[in-house]
Amino acid sequence: VEFCISQLPIEDVMCGDTLALCCEITGKRRIMMKELILVMAKALVDKPDEVEIREIEGDVTTILELKVAKDDLGKVIGKQGKTAHAMRSILNATATKLKKRAVLEIVE
């Protein structure tokens, strides 16, 4: 079942003391790393409809490939890579909570 976190009211999205986005699925709290990056990327770019994320999930590591419009590439990378670094830091905090490892790759 596909679930889009952007359909939830904001008060249902924040997970108390964590900086992760989550939702209730079958009564259990599940942190959605893909949705977290999607929400951040769409907030940064001029063409949010062109934001795509491919999630490659392994046993321990999840790779998220972020693709944005060519004109928006600089916005998600940021000056000296600071925006991309910040997104990766938030993603890693979320992954640590899940006892997983996550890698964010920004692809052209």
UniProtKB/TrEMBL annotation:
Cross-referenced InterPro entries: KH_dom-like_a/b, KH_sf_prok-type, KhpA
SUPFAM superfamilies assigned to the protein according to its UniProt record, in alphabetical order: Prokaryotic type KH domain (KH-domain type II)
Keyword presence, Cytoplasm: yes
Keyword vocabulary terms for this entry: Cytoplasm, RNA-binding
GO function term, MF aspect, one: RNA binding
Protein name as annotated: KH domain-containing protein
Species for this entry: marine metagenome
